[in-house]
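Supplementary Methods, section 5.1.

A reviewer requested that the exact input to the structure prediction be made available. We therefore reproduce it here, unchanged from the version used in the analyses.
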Amino acid sequence: MQKIVLVRHGERLDNVDPMFYKKNNQKHLKWNPPLTEDGILMAEQTAESLVEQLKETPIKAIYCSPYLRCLQTAKPLSELTGLPIKIEYGLIEWGLDSWIGPNGFQFLSGGELETEIERRYESKTNNNSEKAKLLFDGDYEMCLKKVEHNEDYPKCYRRMRKFWDAFQEKEINKRQVLQGKGAIVFVSHYGTAECLYENMKGKPEESVYSGILDIPYCGTAMFQRESDNTKWKKVHKFKKLWNLD
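The structure derived from this sequence is encoded token-by-token as follows.
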């Protein structure tokens, strides 16, 4: 059995505090907001649930958008499995200028990212700097190395079709990342997770529109197939695996 899990990032800080970037020297994060404290807990609980659910089909790889909130969401899963995070541009945010900013996609450099992760996690790990770091796969070659901004929804849908086709050919067929039994995880955003989900279901472009799915923070959807070269089938639509009550 082979499985693919789609995960949306956890709760983002700007939805709770829209002006967060004006505080504590965070202007560089205006268009790349981090998770809230609750968002971090959502990610941790989701990771624990996925590892437990996938005992019989262990996770073999984690692919993630380069945005900070997605990397924070992937972090606990990487720690629990010992797997490095593979940064994939194909999974980045739906490229609406009103969402990503007038200058296009904005990511943190290696040093900036390391500083932000340490800043948000080191105090929680008794100053264990290793726990406050992200583990990356520096050898991973992305399926999509460039993504246009100012995307409308049909363009985003076609982008995710292009990514899914390239991913199947490069990672599944050639590298055989899922050879035998196992699972892979995609950590992405609402719009791109929605478009990838509909593409994997085989839904035609003309029948989809934005907001058709209810995808909660850290919502997960799952597909599976019996073996190589068989058809992917939906196991369940997006649902949350966390409970903060």
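The chain has a mean pLDDT of 89. These observations are discussed further in the main text.
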